[in-house]
Design brief:
This protein is mostly beta strands. It contains 2 helices and 28 strands.
């Protein structure tokens, strides 16, 4: 046989074996107690979403804990994660499913399949949880223990983020919407709604028990039209607007509203959907007793591409992801509650949602 042909054949076999090589999940066992989960969305339709775990004891990050523990990937666009004791629920948006995962071993426990486009999971009790959906006009109710769908809440529009307050859940209507729904968790019925600026994307409850809603305002060409972004403060009991704080730039696109552990300061990411800004992009901080936007970012974006943010509910450590060009593996930056950089680490493709596991 031709010598060059033999060499080429050997090289092909070697490359093929390397390309197919994957770590056998049977050789990987995990037993974690404290740390931070990072949901890496992955690329749309590529099915390359992944789960990272940052061990706060060792400071080490593992970017493939779900695959290594189970031998199969998460799926197409992992979006959010909700933790309940030793269990977690991960929404796999474009795959239309929810995975149940053991937070100590990262083992897959079960699946809710056949969903439209699940976004967030809101726990109500040990036997009840809600699933919002980007394309469905209802919220699904399921039992976290059995993973069985138990009820459907008709909303008439799509729903996004949810927060619990007493016996109620508030849900934003983000996609081409401008309302916040008030749902009675005892009856699973929409009791009330309130209009806010276009496309409310996130909410928090502050120390004064007021509901803060962040609207991005939409975008040019949207069927809903474009509006000024805004922070709306609502009395959750009376469903009255207490304050509306408008952002000065209509092309600004604030998102990812969060609150610190003491619930006295809100945080959000602020950039522009046009890429052209007359303000400094970055992470902003604002007192819940203020009705004026800060002039400058708390943590400037500089030459990064801030994508999502998370705040440790115990220590108020701030986590911000940099999606780079959405094709490379992104970075996660950690900051103190005062905004000082602690460190950074490489996650996987499009690091997005952060979920915190404490003792």
């Amino acid at each position: 046989m031709n010598k060059n042909l033999v060499i080429l054949l050997f090289a092909f076999v070697l490359l093929l074996s390397l390309g197919c090589e994957r770590e056998d999940p049977e050789f990987r066992t995990f037993s974690k107690s404290t740390g931070v989960f990072i949901i890496n969305e992955g690329n749309f339709t590529y099915g390359n979403a992944s789960l990272s775990f940052l061990d706060l004891t060792t400071g080490e990050i593992d970017n493939q804990v779900f695959y290594k523990a189970n031998g199969f990937p998460l799926g197409d666009v992992a979006f959010s994660m909700t933790i309940s004791d030793s269990m977690a629920f991960i929404s796999i948006n474009n795959s239309g499913k929810i995975f149940s995962v053991n937070t100590r071993t990262f083992k897959h426990q079960g699946t809710i399949a056949g969903l439209s486009s699940p976004r967030y999971i809101q726990l109500i009790s040990k036997t009840k949880a809600y699933i919002s959906d980007l394309y469905s006009t209802s919220i699904l109710v399921f039992d976290p223990g059995s993973l069985q769908i138990t009820d459907t809440i008709e909303t008439g529009r799509s729903t996004e983020q949810m927060v619990v307050w007493n016996d109620y859940v508030f849900a934003t209507c983000w996609s081409f919407g401008n309302e916040v729904l008030k749902i009675n968790t005892l009856t699973n019925q929409v009791e009330d709604s309130i209009r806010v600026n276009n496309q409310p994307n996130s909410m928090v409850i502050d120390k004064n028990n007021n509901l803060w809603v962040l609207s991005d305002g939409g975008y040019e060409g949207s069927p809903l039209g474009v509006d000024y972004p805004a922070l709306t403060v609502i009395d959750p009991d009376k469903m009255d607007v207490l304050t509306t704080v408008l952002f000065p730039n209509i092309s600004g696109s604030p998102n990812n509203l969060l609150i610190n552990g003491s619930r006295d300061s809100i945080f959000f990411l602020y950039g522009s959907w046009t890429g052209e800004t007359d303000f400094d992009s970055g992470a902003y901080r604002m007192s819940v007793n203020s009705n004026e936007l800060p002039d400058d970012p708390f943590i400037p974006e500089k030459n990064r591409l801030y994508y999502r943010m998370g705040i440790d509910p115990v220590y108020s450590t701030i986590y911000i992801s940099d999606a780079l060009d959405y094709m490379q593996k992104g970075f996660v930056f950690r900051f103190t509650p005062d905004g000082a950089l602690i460190d950074s680490m490489r996650a996987d493709r499009i690091p997005g949602f952060f979920a915190f596991m404490t003792e």
